[in-house]
Amino acid sequence: MTPQPGGGLLAPSDIADLAGVSRAAVSNWRKRMTDFPQPASGTANKPLFSASEVESWLAAHPDKKRVESIINSAAKEWEAQLWGVANLFRGHTSVHAMGEIFVQTAVDVIEARPSYAGHGIRQASVDQLREVLADIPRPELANVIDRVLERTSRSLGRSAGETGFVGSRTSFLLASLASGLRGGTLYDPACGIGVALLEAVEMGARPNRIVGHEINTAAAEIARGRAILRGVNLDLRIADVLHHDPDPELRADVVIAEPPFGMRIDRTTTMIDPRLRFGIPPRSSGDAFWLQHVVAHLADEGVGYVLTSPGMLFRRGAEAEIRRNLLLGGWVHAVVGLPGKMLPHTSIPLALWVLGKTRAVTRTEVLLIDASSVDAPENEVADWLSDDEALAKVPHMRVSVEELTAGDADLSPGRWMLSEEVDEVEVEREFEQTRQDMRRASAALGEISRAVAAPATSGTPPVLTVAELVEAGAIETASARPLREADAAELEGRQVDAAAVRRRELPSVSDLDRIQARELTAPGDVLLTAMHDIQAMVDEEGGHVPVGSVYRIRVVDHTKLDPHYLADALAGEWNLRLASGATIPRIPVREIEVPVPSLHEQRAIHFAVSEARRARDLATEAAKAADSLAGTMLTAVRHGISLTTTPTEGLQR
């Protein structure tokens, strides 16, 4: 949602934007400032605050409105200048390498060292980059560089997730768990570009030593540079941790780890390893190896926080035996089941393991938390693990080690949750709401069904193929072209693939920077995909980039063709006979046939077709509401909730 000064409701993220601070800062205010406004609406996991109360509180605490908000416009200007310089590098180096160049050049600036070109880059480009970086105030340099890294990481998709990325929700989660460390050692065995380690320091961690290991040399160099820019002393080593333990004697007070998911163990990695005292993991997955590596490096009172794929919680065989041994040894404090989409490159839900030696031999229970339905668990997990009042707001269960180890040592939180208590008032409200939704959709469907009529047309119209329409100058067509890696960041957020066309949902570009690019669509362009079947829609807003199998068709002669009718006609069933291909049927776009009646008739046809589709949507709405209504009534029966005013209501028809 957007902050609404003077009125409305604000989520914690909106408050952070309003004050120009991080979300972690807002979380700290809520915990530590007794006069901070109480939630005015929302739920325990999704609180909403009165905008006017928040503004009054910020006015009473001017020190909380950080300088960051004051220099916001300047920061945007610096970032814009850096993006301008980035154009000098595009096409000459990868996005990964560009990030490394930016960080290293910034380090050169603050250390007053010369900057040299590498990665096939011209020295003049590096010199120009250095000039821009030198104009950025020293206290803001690290943040500006991070914003550039965050923006470039979005264009890398899955490959960015392998080494971490600025703005990562999972890194924020791990950092929040380590933020209370005072003294001792903080360790990340797969630190990537150092996001979680450095964010932990930013959130308040003050360890005596910070250790990071990373297999990827480029990522490690970025982590080293980011630490220097923040004045953080990072003990960093490039190492393949699973193949060879780089520091067997290391013992850390807090270990945070987000190792690569689904990582296979190389056959050269020895299984005769002192770290593997709980069992030999399968070579098909490194999850169990990482858990044991973390345990091996915990200090006597240390705690480890490890993110794994959910499969490590329930897979059988060797991994089940390792779970059992960890449980019997008293090493598992807690497991948190997280929701999907915590990482932008995968919808797979994650699991957080909390491991530690504290009273290990006497631990008889394990805390299991089911956060699969919590929108932003990264803001809450630290509280759940330390505050029983906060824990009460999320589904959880303490299960005995004896019970957990009796079977396959399945640690999936949802597997152990009791039937959730049902709010009678909420069930009644849901019943009334869904009943009203069903009645409204059904009534509207009846009205529109009676009104739908076939449009009047005069005779058989001429039928032209797309190729003939192009030749006649009525339309232009263009297929999607692969984006250069260097352009991907600038065009991020604008891309439209076949799935978006099928859903008829295009990303909004109204909040994105205005750019000029020949790949962009114009308002009124038709977007079409012709794999399996034909789907077409009009891009009303423009400013998008077709990718993959999506074609752009632009009406040139508006006296002959209406774009909305064209989108309807392109998807006509008669064109399906043109499909070819056994595995993935494709319809040749140039051969698609379009009947071309008069412009007036086209618009009448589009109106009638739109009304029929509206009837279809209303029927779907009514069906969904009916399904929900049925489910609500069954829930009421299960929990003994009466939804009738009298016992016989509903039987009298």
Alpha-carbon distance between the two ends: 45 Å
Number of strands: 20
Any guess at the CATH architecture of the largest domain?
3-Layer(aba) Sandwich
Shape: globular
The rounded Rg comes to 29 Å
Integer tally of domains:
4
CATH fold name of the largest domain:
Rossmann fold
Judged by helices, strands and strand pairing, the structural class is: alpha/beta
Number of helices: 24
CATH superfamily of the largest domain: Vaccinia Virus protein VP39
Oligomer: single chain
What is the percentage of strand-forming residues? 5-15%
Average predicted local confidence, pLDDT: 84
CATH class of the largest domain: Alpha Beta
Query: What composes the largest sheet?
Result: 9 strands, mixed
Instruction: Flag low-confidence runs.
Output: 1-7, 67-71, 157-161, 646-653
Percent helix, as a range, is: 25-40%
Strands in their spatial order, largest beta sheet: 6-5-4-7-8-10-9-11-12
Describe the structure.
The chain is an alpha/beta fold and 653 residues long. It has four domains: 9-69, Multidrug-efflux Transporter Regulator, Chain: A, Domain 2 (Orthogonal Bundle), CATH 1.10.1660; 71-152; 161-415, Rossmann fold (3-Layer(aba) Sandwich), CATH 3.40.50; 463-506 and 518-596, Alpha-Beta Complex (Adenine-n6-DNA-methyltransferase TaqI, Chain A, domain 2). The chain contains 24 helices and 20 strands. Helix 6 (95-110) packs parallel to helix 12 and helix 23 (563-570) packs across helix 24 (599-638). The chain is globular. The model is unreliable at 1-7, 67-71, 157-161 and 646-653 (pLDDT under 50).
